[in-house]
Amino acid sequence: MRIGKYFVALPYSNEKHNSTIHAKILKLLLYRIARRPDVGGRGRMFTPEQETHIVNMVIANNEIRLREIQQRIIDNDTIFQNIHSASISALSRVLARHRIRMKEIYRVPFERNTERVKQLRYDYVQRVMELEADAMGHELLFVDEAGFNLSKTRRRGRNIIGHRAIINVPGQRGGNITMCAAISQNGVVHHHATIGPYNTAHIIAFLDTLHDMLTGGYRMRCGRNFVAEPRKTT
User: Fold this and answer.
1) I want to staple 165 with a disulfide (CB 3.0 to 4.6 A). Which of 93, 132, 157, 176 is the partner?
2) Domain limits for position 191
3) Which Pfam families match (predicted)?
4) 106 CB contacts (<8 Å, ≥6 apart)?
5) pLDDT digits (tens, 9 = 90+) for 122-134
């Protein structure tokens, strides 16, 4: 079929069906009729800039809740001056539109990757390598302290798809059941548990007991030289 300078290939069908298609194509080509954009109804609640600010709230604090976002929007008269109320479902749709999902929170200590801690880890490895290369033949004792935290925190948070939901936590949070132990290649040499943090008095008492054990029966049985090295777990 030819319409002006256009050639249109139509599928074989009955005459009534072809005439309907002819009319639609003719109307489109001659009058350039297209579907009008949707009008009427309620428009979008947030502008693109406001949605970006909401996303930044979640990126800055992965454990933030929808109700906290809602309260911040209501309290903010600078960016959200035209927003007097925002439902939880509306905020959830905004986050979903920007590919932000609920996921398990991954906890990261404050100073794990600071330059100071990295240098301490490097020095620790160098010290262990020097002791292992010593001709005297030392046996290393690793002194480690671990706390089983009794406090409860939020387990889930939000972040962009493909990224972890991360929260920075302090080293001590709430009540702990703390275990301190000295470990050699032959197993646990000494251990002690206490309720609460392992303060200076506990550490001194633990090291005194460990020293007595190493200078007494345990050292006599093994006949080895020991070097106590604190284990870096930061």
Assistant:
1) 157
2) 111-230
3) DDE_3 (PF13358)
4) 164, 165, 166, 167
5) 998 998 888 888 7
